[in-house]
Amino acid sequence: MFWVKTFILSLFLLAINFNQLMGQVTDSSFTFSKEEVIRLDSIMQYQEQTIQIQKEKIELLEAQVMKYKMLNQQDSFHLDLLNKNVSLLNSRVDLYVDLTKELKPKWYNKPVVHFFLGAITVTTAAIVFDLVR
What we know:
86% helix
């Protein structure tokens, strides 16, 4: 069975090769002069150079796009850090406001109250001293 398939395959390949050999007939209408060959060669070289330059441009532009994406990502990280810094500074301001409320002098720590309390104490002491004598 295997040999039959191999034989059929080899016959098929021989038939294909035979058709290709018969199809390669030279025709004088398809021959090119030396100038035409040189011109076609220069056109081909120009096209190859153009394609190579375009490939290099594409590679450079892809690298530039990658750098822009990285820059965008870094800017996003920087903005996130700045927003966190702003929120921390806002909480710090709130803490300072709370601290100033706690450290604000009470009604009895004002100089006017101290003056009157001192005057009342001296007056009371003078009256008590006068009564005791």
